[in-house]
Amino acid sequence: MMEIKNLIHYSLHFIAPAIIGYLFFKSNWKRAYLIFLASMAVDLDHLIADPIFDPDRCSINFHPLHTYIAMGFYVIGLFFNKTRILAIALLFHMLTDLIDCYL
Fold first, then answer.
1. How far is CA 80 from CA 39, 50, 88, in A?
2. pLDDT tens figures, 60-77
C-alpha cells in the first residue's frame, strides 16, 4: 500500500503540475510548471517537526505552512494576477497532501 501511496503522491507533485500547466497555461506552461515545482518549498516547514518525516502523519493543519490559516492566504493570492499561478500551485500542493491523509 505504501508504494501506491507514494506513487500517487509524487505523481501529483511532479506529473500533474505539468499537465495542469499545459492545459491551463499553454503559452507559459513551462513557467507554470516551474512555479508548481517551486511551490514545494512550502515543505520546508517539515524541518521544524519532530520527527522531520513521519509517513503516517497528516501534514494538513500540522505544519505551519499547511494550516487552514495559511491556505486562506493562498486563496487570497488567487485574486491577484501576479500571484495567481503560485496560489494555484500552493493550493494544489495542499490538496495533494490532503489526499495523503486519507490514503
1. 17, 35, 11
2. 999 999 999 999 999 999
